[in-house]
Structures are given as structure tokens and as C-alpha cells.
Amino acid sequence: MSELFTVIPPGQAFATLAHGCSQVERTEIVPLAEALGRVNAADIFAAETLPAFARSTMDGYAVRSADTHGASEQSPAYLELTGDVPTGIVPTVTVVPRTAGRIHTGAMLPQGADAVVMVEDTNQHPSTGSGQVEIEVLAAAAHGENVLTIGEDVARGALAIPAGRRLRPADLGGLAALGITAVEVRARPRIAILSTGDEVVPAGAAPGPAQVRDVNATTVGATVERAGGIAVHCGIAPDEENALLEAARAGLKGADALVLSAGSSVSVRDLTGRIVEALGRPGVLAHGIAIKPGKPTVIALCDGKPVVGLPGNPASALVVAWRIVRPLVRLLGGEAVDDDALGDGRELDALLDLSVPSRPGREDYVPCTLERDAGGALHATPVFGASNLIFTLVRADALIAVPLDRSGLAAGERVRVIVQ
Amino acid sequence: MSELFTVIPPGQAFATLAHGCSQVERTEIVPLAEALGRVNAADIFAAETLPAFARSTMDGYAVRSADTHGASEQSPAYLELTGDVPTGIVPTVTVVPRTAGRIHTGAMLPQGADAVVMVEDTNQHPSTGSGQVEIEVLAAAAHGENVLTIGEDVARGALAIPAGRRLRPADLGGLAALGITAVEVRARPRIAILSTGDEVVPAGAAPGPAQVRDVNATTVGATVERAGGIAVHCGIAPDEENALLEAARAGLKGADALVLSAGSSVSVRDLTGRIVEALGRPGVLAHGIAIKPGKPTVIALCDGKPVVGLPGNPASALVVAWRIVRPLVRLLGGEAVDDDALGDGRELDALLDLSVPSRPGREDYVPCTLERDAGGALHATPVFGASNLIFTLVRADALIAVPLDRSGLAAGERVRVIVQ
């Protein structure tokens, strides 16, 4: 184990882990109804062209556009109604010159027609005697007007859904449109979560005097699940080297990464470092990250698997879980995640109501409440006080992110906040 | 059925539905590991005080602060080491005047001590002869310094987690800290989803000529699930009044709300209106909403249950599902959702790269791509073209929201976008 107490910026810590590990290769096939939020495993190309036929986008009359040329309220065009175009079946009518077919939204354009005149731009006149019905067209329709043409949505052979996309409702809709009802997705990365500490008991146990309940297994597990991973709970190990190593090794064996939540005391950190060194090569990459709260975080790679040793303090552990573990899970799960990524739609910009002090060279995360003013602008109000308490986070809406290079944020600034 | 074709703003449509329906009263008890994203059913009060004992937040020495008064590098205080304070058990040492106990982060403060001096602010000197060890204290510690006091996190009887909160990782951590391992949550609202249209076939079927696959069941179902609801799929009904009414009635019977996705043609809209009128009182509240795309949306309340008739067009249906169905599901599910709410962390502010035309009196939703520039600012670039196609949404990152009262948005403006 390196004797140097190396502290690196959080972005660098994540990038180093990202560089040294591989995405989960396992895939599984799930029905569309279970694919929301899963990561598409392979590029999906359209096997057919959509729409497969020209369709009307309006209620009105299918016409030959040339027949409506120059038509206006002052000088209407008159067409003979040639029949109805029902929805869902191939039209039997053909639109020959100076005729029109009555058509509904979504129906196939009949042969001969190349445009649709909206019903609002027409009058219908019962004919006198002949049994024919006359359509008065009050506006010209250009070629293709109010018509969805073949292939306008997606062309056969085109990339429909790229690999690595976390599937959204619209993506699932695109697959349904193409008749794809099951999709190959990446397996969810398995993240082993091991709590340590002689003073820590399970959340369901009654702590003795001087003991506390395990909070981190729950918060880290929820963060992993939200990022698309599977939390594999490995219980609580004592601060004893052999027992801890055995538990860590067993946890990492069946998982793609290991998150330890250990104490922050120097002796416990040393213990964590020794354990991690024994788990695989190259071992510990950093003995701390430049973040507050959360500095005493161990960053390691053990035989290609990321290992993150979180501080034992619940608030610190959760902040580092957000900053490092969350993008790591997304990356392992097959998404393209850049070095400094928090960009999964949980970041907002807000106007800062009170100044926040910080120190350059360190990312700070300050709990805040969020509120929209009457004009719709979002305001962030820092919650000062003991930021290392879990209920400080429970009472907060978000965390204000103070960038590495800033010595603080001024009231009135537009700042980035991370919604919990 | 009202003969008037009433078009109301989307916010008013949602508010009217919200006013006329009730939240789901059913609850269920789930373990913490399954409670992420569920809505807490009842106020939860702390049954105990946390921390339950004063704890050290640092590695160092537990002292009586008075003994360190005035201590500095130039004028250290000297204390006799009285013993170790192990973590996780009640300390056996007592700190009497002019003594100090060695303590680790998280350990219980021993009797007599009221502060902790960080190890960095001390030197330890082996004594000569007596077997005693002397601690040199280089900085004064104030009363309570580096100590987490009893009740600093949460006090017994305090509101720990309010009813109506969608549970986040930190909330689950707070519950774990209190020893609460299962939580009563609102049942997920059940939303019946019924597609209609003679031209519509299931996504898994091969469409005949002039037929299309059902996209809306998938996209609306995914939107409902993401908002915390259960999508109850009721299949596809033909455009025939009796069959449609029967399917709608059966769907609504076992559900808390019904979402119909119907065609947008006038005759189909009339049919939808008649069906909805027959489902319960007061029936149709609006025959359209001032939104683009999505205007031909039917808003109704049938015997206390919301019914939304979406346009058949997939993109329109999805936009209205975002704007109306999503907050409705959250509201039914027990969250406090305000009239005009999109505020579930999927809204971002971005700088608009190109001007977007609109019309006052209508909310417009324009597909866009999102990109961060080198300085970290988020830019939205509108994707123009056929916005009523599902693959236009597949290719987009978000939708730019043009407010009701605006005649367009100018390039360079800060705008609100809704991440898909």
C-alpha cells in the first residue's frame, strides 16, 4: 500500500475508475413493458419503412393538388365527390382529375390523390338531380399538403435506437411502431455493498449504548438502484482485518463493483486500504478525493473491478455515492458517461439566494431548499448547519455544487444544483 | 354532451381534473429496499432522538474544554492520557480535570469530556518513569467542538418524513437511522389505457395495408409507470360505439383513471365524447386543450374518476401524456402537485440556439437536442420538421416549452425544457 495520502479531484477519481474498468457485457431480453430505463444493448435498425403508406393528417378531401391550383374563397374550385376513404383499409376509390375523396385523419391516401384539403377549407353542396355531390374548395392544396409520406418517420435500414441509450417512453414507442416487442438490454450492473464498523448494527436491530444503525447500506443501495444497478447487500463486517477481507472478497466475487462504507478514522481508513490492496491489482488509486463532505474516500481498482471506500458518515457517504458511484453504475451499465458527468436529468440551474463559502481545489456540496418565485425562476437557499447529518439531507431538496476552482458562490449567481 | 367545442389552457385542464378527483386512499406496507420512489402515506415522527449519545466527529482526544483554554503552539496545554475510548461500546474511562482520552471518529464521548481536540492539534509524549503518557494540546477546543450532540440530527417526536413525499435515498436513510425498516406507502394509482381505432393493430401484430401498429399504449404506459402509476393495458377497441363503451367501462371499473388514445378525426372525437358522457357524471369538461401538438384532447371526469382522451397521433399523445397524465398520476398517487406542475426534476433551463415561433394563447412543445458548451452552459437546439412523428421524439433529447402567453421564443433566451 502506498504510504502517500493521495487526494485527487472527484472528476479525476471517476475518470480513473472509468478508464480501468469495463462495461457489463451480459445482456438480457426483456419485453417492451419492462424496458423503460434499461440500457439498449445494440444498435437497432429499422426493418421497415414508416409510414408504410401515405396517410392523411387531417379530416378533409383527398385531391389532386393541380385541381385546386389558384382556389380561394373568391374563386373556389369545384370537385365531384367520388366516395369515402375509410380508415384502416385500402381505399377502393381512385381520385381522377376534378374529383375528391372524403378522408379522415390517419386514412391511406387513395390512388390518384397527392394532397388533402382540410374540411375547414371546403363546402359540400348536394347536387341537383344527378345524385352527384359537389365539393367547393376554398384554398389551394400544394402537392403533399396534409399528407404524411412514405418513410417520413423512419426509413428501412436507418438507425432507429442507438446502443447505450437508456430507453425512454418515446424510444419504446419507436420500437412498438416497428413491431419490436422485446429488446436486448444490458444486464444491470451488480454492486456489492458492504458496511463496516464495530459500532454499526443493522437498521432493523436495536443499537446498544454507543452503537448506531447502518444508514449507508440503505442510501447507497437506493442510489445504485436509481442509477440502474442492482444493490447486492453484503451486511456489516467488523473492523477486523481477516473478517473484513473475507466479506469484501465474497462480495466482489459475485459483483461488478464493490462499495465499502467504512469509518473515517485514520485506523479504519488504514484498514480499508490494506483490505483493498489485498483484493486485487493495482489496488488503491487515491486515499481521498477533493470533495466536501466526503474527503476520506478510497478509490481503487482490483483486477478490473472498481472499489469505492466511502466515509462512514451517512451524509458524506451519500454525497460521494452521488458524485462517484452513481455515474460509475451508469457507465458499468452500458451508458456513455463523460468524466465529469452528473447529467442524468437530476441537475438543475437555480439562482442562489445566499452566498456560499468554499475553498478552491475542492468541490463542495451544500444542502439547499428549492423554490420557484412568481415569475417561475428557481431559487436555491442553502441549508447551513451540520451538513454531516442524514436529516439535514432529508430536509433538503437538492445539493448546491460548488465547482473545484471556485472560492465560493455569491448570492444572485446562477448555480448548479443536484436534485436528490 | 355539450355541443360547444371548448378549448381550455393545459394548466386549467389539469387543475379542473385535480379539483374533481381524489387521491388514491389505498396504502401498502413495503420494506425499505422497495420503497424508493414510492409516496409516503402518513407523517412519520421520530420515535427516538438521534444521535442517542454524544459522539466524536474526529480522531483525537476527548477533553474538558476548560483544560485547553488559551492553548496554542506557543503555549500548549499538557494533559495526562487516561486511556482509550473504543468505538461501539460505552467508554470505561472518565475524563477528570487535566486528563484526556484517546478517541476515534464515531465513538461515544466519555464521561467528563465536553470537546474533542483533533489529533492534528496535538503531540503525544511518552512520560519518563511514571508510566504516564502526556498529551501536548496546541489549540484550544471550545465546549462541544468536534462533538455531535444528542438530538442534533433529529429529536424524538419531530416530523421525520412528511406524508406525500416521494421517497428519495436520503429519506430511506433517515428511516433506517430511526430503525424503521418498512414503510406505509400509497398504492400506485391504476391507470387504464385503451387504444381505439379501426386502423390500429397491436405492436406485436403485422399490420395489413392501411393499418398501423399501436404506439400509444406503449408510450402512455411508460409515462404512467415513470410517474409512479400502474399501466393497466386494455387493448384496442374498434371505432364502434357499443364495443368502445364496453371496453372503456370495463377499463375504468378496475382503475383510478382512464386514458383513451383515440383518433383525431372529427367523427372519432365525437364518438369519444359520447362514450365519455356515458361513463359517468359530469362527463366531458373540455373538447380540446390549447397545446401544440395535442389540441384534440378530451378532458373529462366520470363519477370522480379522471378520463383523458388523447389524440391518436403518437407524438401528440405523448406530449399530452407528459403535460396532463404525468402530473395527474402523481396527484392520484398522493403527491402535492400544483396546477401547472411539471416539477418532478425533469425540467431544465437551457439557452435557446434558434428562435421558435408560436402563437399566444397556446402552449407549444418543440422537440430539441441538448448540449453543454465548454463553459458548462446547456444549449437547446430545436428540431424542426414533422413534429407529429414518433421518431422525431426518439431523435430529440427534450421538449422546449413555449408558455401560453408568448408569441414565440427568441434565440439566446433562457427557456424551460422538459427532458424526456
Short description:
2 copies of one chain form a homodimer. Chain A is α/β, with parallel strands linked by helices.
Give structural notes.
Two copies of one chain form a homodimer. In chain A, β9 and β10 (133-137) form a beta hairpin. Chain A has helices spanning 10-20, 169-177, 216-226, 241-253, 266-279, 314-332, 390-394, and strands at 7-8, 27-31, 44-45, 55-56, 60-63, 77-85, 99-103, 115-118, 122-126, 133-137, 147-148, 159-161, 182-186, 190-196, 200-201, 212-213, 230-237, 257-261, 282-286, 288-289, 291-292, 298-302, 305-310, 347-352, 356-357, 363-372, 378-382, 398-402, 408-409, 414-419. Helices cover 20% and strands 32% of the residues of chain A. Chain A has four domains: 7-26 and 187-332, Molybdenum Cofactor Biosythetic Enzyme, Chain A (3-Layer(aba) Sandwich), CATH 3.40.980; 28-51 and 152-186, Molybdopterin biosynthesis moea protein, domain 2 (Alpha-Beta Complex), CATH 3.90.105; 55-148, Molybdopterin biosynthesis moeA protein, domain 3, CATH 2.170.190.11; 347-419, Beta Barrel (Beta-clip), CATH 2.40.340. The model of chain A has no long low-confidence stretch (mean pLDDT 92). The first copy, chain A, has a six-stranded mixed sheet with strand order 8-5-7-6-10-9, with no helix packed on it. Chain A is built from seven helices and 30 strands. With 420 residues, chain A is an alpha/beta fold. Chains A and B meet through α2, β16, α3, α5 and α6 of A and α2, β16, α3, α5 and α6 of B.
